[in-house]
Specification:
102 residues, alpha+beta, five-stranded antiparallel sheet
């Protein structure tokens, strides 16, 4: 009889389960992004603004320190590092973003 083996795959059940249970941020939906009716701009690579942003996860909302990747007057794409060494990105409403006081 045949066997149920995966040859040449670097994905283990443990790795797949870790991805499935790791919470991901909740980004604005496509409809929400389209509703702004505005073009998205990107900051110059050497002038990526550092911001504080409130982001939603399935079980909580948290303020993160991150950088702006894209924006318009109504929404911002924020990227931040996670404690586990990963990086998350999410579109949030502009009102959820502030520039930290120095």
């Amino acid at each position: 009889m045949g066997s149920n083996c995966r040859h040449g795959s670097d994905l283990t059940d443990k790795a797949i389960n870790a991805v499935l249970v790791k919470p991901q941020p909740i980004s604005l939906t496509e409809d929400e992004k389209k509703s702004t009716g505005q073009a998205v701009e990107q900051p110059p690579a050497d002038q990526t603004p550092q911001v504080l942003a409130w982001v939603r996860y399935p079980a909580w909302t948290v303020q993160v320190s991150g950088k702006v990747l894209a924006y318009n007057d109504r929404m911002v794409l924020v990227e931040w590092d996670t404690q586990g060494g990963g990086t998350h990105r999410a579109w949030v409403w502009r009102s959820a973003v502030t520039i930290p006081k120095r």
